[in-house]
Amino acid sequence: MNSVPISATRPSTGIRVAQVVGLTASAYLAGALGGFSAVAGPALLKAPAPLLAKQWLTVFDNGKVTAPPLSVLCSAIFGYLAYREPTASSNFALYTAAAIVVPSMIPYTIFFMGGVNSKLQEKASSLANASLTDTEVESGVAQDETVHQLVDKWLTLNFTRSLLPLVGTLAAGWAIADKFEVLGLGAVLKTGADRMG
């Protein structure tokens, strides 16, 4: 009789909740950051400079209160899973990598995006009273210092930043998937002619 064992180890409910919340939060973070750069950003670039600066500032202000705490939550969850589920050294390494790489978006933001963020905040402040539809407001500004060029650069840096929680999600997902093992505890799938009885 040809059979394939299909049972798998089952983590505790607490571990399962941590796995689901950690994966969901890190995947959401990666998708929100990357999606903004890939989908919303190009549409925003069609706006006049004063409107674009205002829109960018709204995104920036919303992001700085949601993304860092979410990345720290992911790090804590993945660190917890590394501590609670060290069944294999590879799983421990994967969870630990996820716990480190997801919140590394915070120093990335500070060191790689800080200059562009500061310039865009200044632009948003200086253009706050300009007409939102004024297309000539930056006519004398150097090409690489316009709101459009700065936002375009920010979108590229932001997309790169989104790869950090994506890598963390993939590492943790691999650790979770690797945890399941075929044990052969009696449950079987019949194959071939034997499946008919």
TrEMBL record:
It is found in: Membrane. The chain crosses the membrane at residues 20-45, 65-83, 92-116. Pfam families: Anthrone_oxy (PF08592). InterPro entries: Anthrone_oxy (IPR013901). It is a multi-pass membrane protein. Keywords: Membrane, Transmembrane, Transmembrane helix. Belongs to the anthrone oxygenase family. This is DUF1772-domain-containing protein.
